[in-house]
Amino acid sequence: LENYYIAKYEVTQEEWIAVMGTNPSGFSSKPVIKEKQAKRPVEQVSWYDAVLYCNARSRLEGLTPCYSLGGTTDPDEWGPSPLESKKSQWDSISCDMQASGYRLPTEAEWEYAARGGKKSINYSYSGYNTVEIVAWYEHNSIAKTHESGKKKPNELGIYDMTGNVWEWCFDRYGGYQKNAISNPINGLSPGKDRVVRGGSWASNSKVCLVTNRNTRNPTDRVDSVGFRLVKR
Predict the structure, then answer these.
(1) Max Cα separation, the chain?
(2) Rounded-to-integer distance, Cα 214 and Cα 168, Å
(3) Between the N and C ends of the chain, which has fewer C-beta atoms within 10 Å?
(4) Got the DSSP string for 118-131?
(5) How far apart are CA 143 and CA 174, in angstroms?
(6) C-alpha closest to that of 103 among 164, 45, 52
(7) DSSP secondary structure string, 44-85?
(8) What is the mean pLDDT of the chain?
């Protein structure tokens, strides 16, 4: 993998509100003060919603948006956002991985960071072999999300890559390549469903394993799925 930055925390409700102006989260709460780094993740956002957020935040911060459709990075020119599972032109969204803006991680980038990168100790979960130490999951979450950063981070100092909410990846779901390749991505592979990783507040310990893969339709908006940002 080429070098990349990845957020220490999942995108929070505060961060979403600051960019998008509304809060879609099922587990919404009054935004915490900015001095506190423990914030609840945004959820009930589709893959398409996450892409919109990435481009919108990139523009606000003067960065070059990564996502484009039909030759434009302006979502206002993309047509209506898909709300159902039927085929949409939005399935042809492409990503400029070298642009300076924010984007979703590829599945390979997500797993490399979750495992601890070059500092990896090969834990079963992201940061530890005991799930309760690093994750909010079905046995300790009380059936809800929790503020980020309250559990132990992984070897790279990243929080909640196990549990709390599933995290969207850019890739479509598909089999791994048999041969080693640079910067692997299944974003152009057949099929429509997109990869989610990490498990959530509703997942059992097996589902939360750092090796586990899952998939959802990109239109899905559920209270157990959010996302994390990466950039060059």
Answers:
(1) 48
(2) 10
(3) N
(4) GG----SBTTBSSH
(5) 30
(6) 52
(7) S--HHHHHHHHHHHHHHTTPPP-EEBTTB--GGGS-SPP-SS
(8) 92
Contact between 172 and 191 (Cβ < 8 Å): yes
Identify the DSSP state of 215.
E
State both tokens at 32. 């915490």
SS3 91: helix
Vertex 183 angle, CA 78 and 191, to 5° = 50
Closest to 213 measured CA to CA, from 191, 192, 193: 193
CA dihedral 43, 47, 51, 54 (to 10 degrees): 30
- pLDDT at residue 62 above 90? yes
Instruction: Report pLDDT digits (tens) over 90-136.
Output: 888 999 999 999 999 999 999 999 999 999 999 999 999 999 999 99
Give the containing element (helix H, strand E) for 95: strand 94-95
Lookup: tokens for 92: 């042809």
Rg (CA), the chain: 17
Decide: 201 and 26 in contact? Cβ < 8 Å.
no
Residues 6+ apart with CB under 8 A from 158: 6, 7, 8, 113, 114, 126, 127
